[in-house]
Design a protein that fits this description.
mainly alpha; single chain; 12 helices
């Protein structure tokens, strides 16, 4: 079994487990991102409150709307990413080794090459799996009609809960095949690649994070240069905090693209309200800024940060353990384990 295949299968396995554990947060986040009415109070509460409201109004099953295609998408996405990452990484290592033989470099893969490998892998992944995520987004944002309440339940419902009730929606079966048919009728084959442009741009997130990290690290070292510890006096917690700030900065810069992508992939409403129809990425950004303000581009960011950090940690941990187990079964030697950067989860 090739190393690329091992990493691809391990990435798919880790991604599935992380997806199962964090999916309710993804559902809430998708609804936050695609809510287009800034006056609605239902999307000003925290993620926990919104989770409770979905359960109360629509039932537990709606927290897992679109789970089946999402698991397929996660397995495909992680598998494709790690498979191509290992292929591109191996080629980059071979190229670096050839240059070192000619006396150029030390034979190691540089940071720019590593970022390029990650970016190329991300682009291939986006292009191949975008149709799955369009279907998932539509299933996550579909709402069932409110559950019928008995007289005793109605008496217990507070005025605030009533105010937070979602608008009436169609109460029809919303299976994967229905979504695919509706999407094809709405936009044809190209509809399955809605939001692909912001998704491709999102591949730049790791590069932005690294750039911010290096900039902050350089400034901190400069400020501490006069210290008797010198530039080498950075503690583990300081490095951790720099990494966290850099990740937060990259998220702040690129998160609007996630919102735009979700808006483009969600079902377009056919009515007279111009806010509900987007012709493309630029049109979506323009209308969101005009009708919802800057805050509209950051809807649900808190929920996404919590979900992404938890999912990424689980994915990396599980994926590495699966790689170790697979290599041990194939070769009997665990010393071949290589640490590879994880791709951030949806």
């Amino acid at each position: 079994m090739s190393d690329a295949l091992i990493n691809g299968l391990a990435g798919a396995g880790g991604g599935i487990v992380a997806q199962l554990l964090t999916y309710p947060l993804q559902t809430v986040n998708a609804r936050q991102q695609t809510e287009r009415d800034p006056s609605k109070p239902a999307f000003k509460d925290g993620a926990v409150r919104q989770l409770c409201l979905v359960v109360q109004n629509e039932g537990w099953e709606r927290l897992y709307g679109g789970l089946a295609p999402s698991l397929v998408g996660t397995a495909a996405s992680q598998g494709v990413y790690y498979f191509f990452y290992q292929i591109f990484r191996s080629r980059a290592e071979a190229a670096s080794l050839r240059r070192s033989i000619r006396g150029i470099g030390d034979g190691s893969v540089g940071m720019f090459q590593s970022l390029t490998v990650a970016a190329l892998s991300g682009c291939v992944n986006v292009l191949l799996t975008n149709p799955i995520w369009v279907v998932v987004t539509r299933m996550q944002t579909h709402r069932k009609a409110n559950k019928q309440q008995g007289p005793q339940d109605q008496g217990l419902t507070s005025a605030l809960d009533k105010a937070l009730q979602p608008a009436p929606v169609e109460n029809v079966p919303h299976k994967t095949i229905n979504v695919i048919q509706d999407l094809y009728k709405e936009a044809g084959a190209f509809g399955f690649w809605k939001g692909v442009i912001p998704a491709l741009i999102m591949v730049s997130n790791p590069a932005i994070q690294f750039m911010l990290y290096e900039t902050l690290l350089k400034k901190l070292k400069k400020r501490r240069a006069s210290n008797f510890k010198g530039a080498q006096g950075l503690t583990a917690i300081e490095v951790f905090l720099l990494g966290a700030v850099a990740k937060l900065g990259a998220t702040l810069v690129t998160y609007p693209l996630l919102v735009v992508k979700a808006r483009l992939q969600a079902k377009q409403m056919i009515d007279d309200d111009k806010r509900h129809r987007y012709k493309g990425t630029f049109d979506a950004i323009t209308k969101m800024m005009h009708y919802e303000g800057l805050s509209g581009l950051y809807k649900g960011m808190g929920t996404k940060i919590v979900q992404s950090v938890f999912a990424s940690a689980l994915l990396f941990m599980i994926k590495e353990e699966l790689v170790k187990g697979a290599r041990f079964l194939v070769t009997g030697d665990t010393s071949l384990v290589k640490k590879l950067p994880s791709k951030p989860s949806r």
